[in-house]
Fold this protein.
Amino acid sequence: MLRNAVDRGLLLKYSNSLNELFSKYSALSPTDFEQRLNTADPVERDFWEQIRLSHIFDRTFRPLAGYSYFEIVRTSGLWDLTSRAFPESALAESAVCNSRRVTDNQVQQVWDRPIEFHIDAQFFYDHMLSLNFWTPLTPCGIEAPGIKVILLGVKATKDFLEYNPDGYVPGPTDFARMNRFRCFKMQDTALQEHNMLRHVWAPAFSLGDVLAFTNFTMHATHHTPSMTMPRTSIEVRIDLPSAAI
Ligand SMILES: O=C(O)CCC(=O)C(=O)O
Ligand SMILES: [Fe+2]
């Protein structure tokens, strides 16, 4: 956890830019939205599927807002800190760098719901280490949904999930790289059975706090029925292609 790492004025700037974009997209009528989702172009369809969930990627945000999510890590010194912490690797801006806003209430267009335990490597990439500098734009973890992580190292997590780079036979609901891990072991009952819940950490975030975790860290939205506020956050991922995993 990197407390008070990012300038609050910068975070406010992202909030304003994103709110503007979210209002633009949520102003589309459900029929217009459906029409866009029904396009034959897979890239276009993916774009709208992501927008529907409030995921605006840096490649979309940057040209529209005129600045990038990566300023979060560059202006705060977190990029340089990462560079010093991993001298064995060059650093690269990940293509998977996106916004998200979460509510457990009545979900409308351009909102996401809480997500259960997963690792990002099961969706994006497992061939290199990537750090997620998870940056909420509102205080969260108490009245607004936060994030919870399982405090376990990369190797221990890969062992627990029985990582197999060649992949197991894919199950009916597997997509992306899910079949390289025993993803079912991240279900609540399995985590409990394996005595993993004692490692769960769900911190409260003040504005400016950032949580760094890897693409092999098990994490989920932290939400409880008493959380009445929504939360917007930005996932700034730095890839470390030569770091050991
Ligand atoms: O924001 C959330 O609740 C989940 C975030 C997440 O899964 C991620 O940043 O990779
Ligand atoms: Fe994730």
The first helix runs from residue 8 to 26. The chain has one domain: 8-240. The domain at 8-240 is CATH 2.60.120 (Jelly Rolls). The mean pLDDT is 96.
